[in-house]
Design goal:
With 129 residues, the chain is an alpha/beta fold. The protein is built from 5 helices and 6 strands, in the order αββαβααβαββ. A 6-stranded mixed beta sheet has the order 2-5-1-6-3-4.
């Protein structure tokens, strides 16, 4: 058994398959999940696991070259906005409806148990070299 890193076998396998420019949607429990992408649903109950916990775990495993979030997060969920700004200095904001449209191009959706609004981010994978 793995002793470190991501233990969820579905998530670990999905991350290993990602390549440069593939997109990953990390979303709260209320975000509509598009048809098509592989989905790893980590939600256990409201707030568990949190958006911050899942994002931190994913960032330990992925190279990210860009991120997009809903503009509404800045007012509706300042804590999530600060978390995202801290991780992604070049964070792009789009209207929430546009984020939902863009999420249809994700290769992977990771659903958290987060129960606060707009705790969603679309990550664009980079390369480690």
């Amino acid at each position: 058994m793995k002793k470190a890193g991501i233990l969820n076998r579905h998530l670990a396998g999905a991350l290993a398959e990602l390549g440069h420019t593939d997109q990953v949607l990390v979303c709260d429990a209320g975000m509509p999940i598009p048809d098509g992408p592989r989905v790893v649903d980590l939600a256990f109950r409201a707030g568990v696991p949190s958006f911050a916990e899942v994002l931190d775990g994913l960032l330990a495993e992925l190279v990210v070259e860009g991120a997009t979030a809903a503009a509404e997060v800045r007012e509706a969920n300042p804590e999530a906005a600060a978390l995202l700004a801290g991780h992604f200095p070049g964070l792009v904001f789009v209207p929430h409806e546009r984020l939902k449209e863009l999420s249809a191009g994700a290769r992977l959706v990771v659903r958290t148990g987060e129960a606060r609004p707009y705790a969603n981010v679309l990550l664009r994978c980079g390369v480690f070299f």
